[in-house]
Amino acid sequence: MWYPLRKLGLLLLTAWAAITLNFLLPRLMPGTPADAAIAKLAQNGPVDPATRAAIEAQLGVPTGDTWSQYVQYLGNVAHLDFGVSYTFFPQSVSSLVMNALPWTLVMVGLVTIVAFILGTLLGVLAAWKRGTWLDTLPTLGGTFTSAFPYFWTALLLVFFLGYTLKWFPTSGAYGLESTPNLSLAFIGDAIGHAWLPALTILVTSVGGWILGMRNNMINTLGDDYVTFAEANGLRTRTVAVKYAARNAILPNLTGFGLALGGVVGGSLLVEQVFNYPGVGYLLFNAVTNQDFPLMQALFLMITISILLANFLVDILYGLLDPRTRR
Amino acid sequence: MTAVVNLPEPTGSTPPHQTAGGADPAVPKPHGPASPLRVLSRGASTIWSNKKARIGVVLLLAFVALAIFAPLIAPYGASENGFGRNQSPSGSHWFGTTAAGEDVLSQVIFGARISVLVGFIAGFLSTLIAVVVGLSWGYIRGPLAEIINFIVNLVLVIPGLPLMIVIAAYLQNGGMTMIIFVVVLTGWAYGARVLRSQTQSIRGRDFITAAQFAGDGATRIVFHEILPNMTSLITGSFFGAATSAILAESGLSFLGIGDTTTVSWGSMLFWASNSNALLTGQWVLLFAPGLCIALIATSLTLINFGVDGLSNPRLREGTGR
Fold this sequence. Notes:
The structure holds 2 protein chains of 2 kinds. Chain A is an all-alpha fold. Chain A has helices spanning 3-28, 33-42, 49-59, 66-78, 93-128, 133-146, 150-164, 184-221, 224-231, 236-263, 268-274, 279-288, 292-320.
């Protein structure tokens, strides 16, 4: 079968499985959302039957058999209708997601690209200068920083650069007194607020790219064609960049594609520390408030975008490396 | 090598150095598999010969010792409160006290228990699933292999942390068991895929064909013939899975998912950030638990540098060019 078509079929099948999983997950778990809300109320005192009925009516106790629920759910997903949020009550889930998405896409997206480029370059350098300090420093440093928990890096940066040195604002995506618009002043304000979360993600994620690229590069450097190129007397830089790095970058590109797909999910732990109003923060709020419609919609959106990224990477990879098309 | 007496004439059939054992001529059997003990000790010395891995082993052992002997090392109990609140480091409280009046140093020491335990249990369970699934998946052919392929890919692409917290939200207050459960549920797939491709390449070798002709069953071939060839990969995926399990546990605990009364490094940071340790200026309280998480995770990754060298000699330490 034609390679892209086969991949497309796989994408659709996986997407269907993810949507179904999203449907089944809450039904496999004990209790209904209404039960959870009532249990929460019951902590403050007994819940009378009228309240119970009202909550069940509001949150929608499932009616009909599982099959008809499933068909209805598929229809809703097709219309991007995910219902109304419990926590932010009158607002629809879709509008909440649309408000959070730009913040995450711009901030996390840009940092992901920067981290990838920086890490790959350092990885090439480390493999080429293997055994020297140019190798040891990025490799050991990268190993250490990529083991940093995201939230810890965030807390430390908030503490030292935010509270102690007062270089950057520590919370939110823009100042309390400004409202989102496209003026230069607002964009400047937003950039100022994005520095610390962005720096956190950069510090914690760059190490992975360094190590990955270094390993690939070391493997490629052992290949015969690299030795041959060197024996031919090509310049060192030509051998490193045009012969070795070009082939070594392939596996890293897969990771990059997946990371770009993961951008949509935001960086939950970072956004939570900074109260950054992105997708990850929204998901965290949905989970702590047991806002099931919001949670389901976000989870589905994150999964689908990773699937799409995976698909695009596969197609791209097939173009770059014909061997995989078989 | 001591007294080299009675050295037999080199006949060509037996290398002289093997028989020159002194009093006990311990000649290794020329055929049959090497004893597991020798394989293990040779593997250990390969890992130990790597400088980075050596640092990792020492660091990890230090944390394990800290976890085991926590009650002896820690000056106070983990949840023993009643000391002054939000105190700065002093002689009786080296790392200060928390907002609830607990000793920070003791909590850091006891916190090692959770991380070591979660890393070990979740890493072990993930690896176990990965081995069983990966090896059988790599050995069998046909539609079942395609189905497993689909499931593994699905688990691989579904983003880990969101899936973990969504499941945790549905399960509600499961504590540490629940955390281990979600970590294992999301953590086995990567190892399974790595082990599967290695199994596929071993499957075609002559010794497997020989075993098949000898009438060995599929289970025996997979677990007796193929499995021993993958020791280094399995070790590698164990340390990898343990690292992600430790990081995942700390992240979930920091978010307050699970049991927040359990003293772990993640939950310490959860309480620290919720009680505004930033504003009270207690940087040790913020610094120490996170540093421990980073160090224990680094130690596992460092060990894996050595483990990589077991299966791929190109990655053994040395100067490249």
